[in-house]
Amino acid sequence: MTLKSYKGKKPIISNYYIKPMTKELSFTISERVAISKILNEFKGTLTVLAILLDDIKKIAITPEEWEKAGLKKTPVLDAQGTPTGQENWNWNDGVEGLNKTVELNSETTLFLLNEIKAKEDKKEITMADISLITLKAKLV
Length: 140
Fold this sequence. Notes:
With 140 residues, the chain is an alpha+beta fold. It has helices at residues 29-40, 46-58, 63-69, 106-121, 130-139; strands spanning 22-27, 72-77, 83-90, 100-105. A hairpin with a 5-residue loop joins strand 2 (72-77) and strand 3 (83-90).
């Protein structure tokens, strides 16, 4: 088939060849942890999952970043003082150079906003969830 045979016809354009809309944002370690937790709860189609997987790689926190943030892992103890097998993680978001600028796809941004909104509607967000509050403000 030659190009002349296409004359006058609109070409078929697939979504796979069009770059999706993206949003460039800077996130703290706490916000990146919050994003990871939300994306881990995803249940949906494989096409959206593929996009989310690309974005989750961008927000990954390296061991060097954890070290720079001063990550401290404290074992959780039960009432008798026996370790439960869980840990509390504490770090410092205020360290220079830990914010990471990434480009998120619109599908990822929309999924994150919808999940945060659902948590707000269920009254699951408190002042302890400051990273979700700041994350929402950045995504809007």
